[in-house]
Amino acid sequence: MSSTDFYASLNAQLEGLLSGERDWLANTANASALLFMELPDVNWAGFYFLHGDELRVGPFQGKPACTRIPVGAGVCGTAVATGEAQLVEDVHEFPGHIACDAVSASEVVIPLYDGDRCLGVLDIDSPSVGRFSEQDLAGLKRFAEVLLHSSDLSGA
């Protein structure tokens, strides 16, 4: 299956899973479970939500995670500070990387926005260097759009 077909299928699954439900907590919990179940070679998939000048862990699948991440710190905090998705081939080469799980080797982080307001991030880690591609980034950005469109995340 091509990457395009894989993400079309994944995003269709998410749309079905969230159909008729707008609760942000339920939807982010199910979205993280779907990602963890369907994405090969990942060891963490979940969300951090912005509270003041820090991100706080939200629903996720994987090993226990860092509870709080300052804006600007690590890959997640950088995504919030810059407003741009982060595609990191080798987290050990990322300045200021926060090792919540020493096994993680690559990471993709997508900021979640409600208009101009950043709500938090979608964060996915892999134990393999170079696991994520530009096609993964595009598919996961669309995944985040589906989630944002289907959920009332402003209360997160």
UniProtKB/TrEMBL annotation:
Keywords: Kinase, Transferase. GO terms for molecular function: kinase activity. InterPro entries: FRMsr_CS, GAF, GAF-like_dom_sf, Phosphatase_reg/MetRdx. Residues 41-145 form the GAF domain. Belongs to the free Met sulfoxide reductase family. This is Histidine kinase.
